[in-house]
Design brief:
This is GGDEF domain-containing protein. Helices cover 45% and strands 27% of the residues. It is of the alpha+beta class. A five-stranded mixed sheet has the order 5-6-4-9-10, with helices on both faces. A three-stranded antiparallel sheet has the order 1-2-3, sandwiched between helices.
Amino acid sequence: MEYAGTTLKDLLGPLYEKNLPYIEAAYRGERQVFERAIPRPDGSGLRHSLATYIPRVVNGQVQGIFVHVADVELIKRLETALKAAKEEAERLATHDYLTGLPNRLLLQDRIDEALARAMRTGERVYLLGIDVDNFKTINDTYGHPAGDQFLVEIAQRLKSCVRDYDTVARVGGDEFLVLAAGLPDGIDDLATRMLHSARQPFHVGAAVLTPSLSIGAARFPSNGTTREAIIHACDRALYAAKRLGRDRFVLA
């Protein structure tokens, strides 16, 4: 009977105001079940519990409430772990394992969204296909680990050329696609920045490489109004850039 005569407000302390809506509902005869997170005294985080308020009804009148509190810390940890695992699985399904860029699956969704938006607003949408010139030579000469580092560096250089809301995706070994809409400076300036950024020296051991890119681009609605048509036009422009000697940009 240590707490006999203690009010609920005194017993709960700083939790009283947070729990008051549940207390009032319980005194109206409504069973309450809710989670609560209580800061640990040592400041190491929150302690999770599940509280149940059960009205004690006598002759149709609420005489008091029974309170049951269960520690659900382990359950919350499992929920957190499951959520993290789900988010990681979703990320792996939609992003490239090496560069962390969106993959083809996620890019396709973003193209569809961009085209649907452009049909409403009239803005131009650009898709750029990018191949690293002579990448096979880098793999054959310096090995696949060096080739992987090289691709990661190219991915970062491409990202540095675009806006936060543009999409740079890796869709194959040395193949990238960039989705951009409503470019205020036009597609030529973006492609020029990418070519210039790629040409900066890349060090592999004692060797210094000067990378280059072949870039082909297509635009909505000039080159098509569907995802398939835009991608096909982009591929044609990329092949043209390669035929013309690589290290250049071609707009379909």
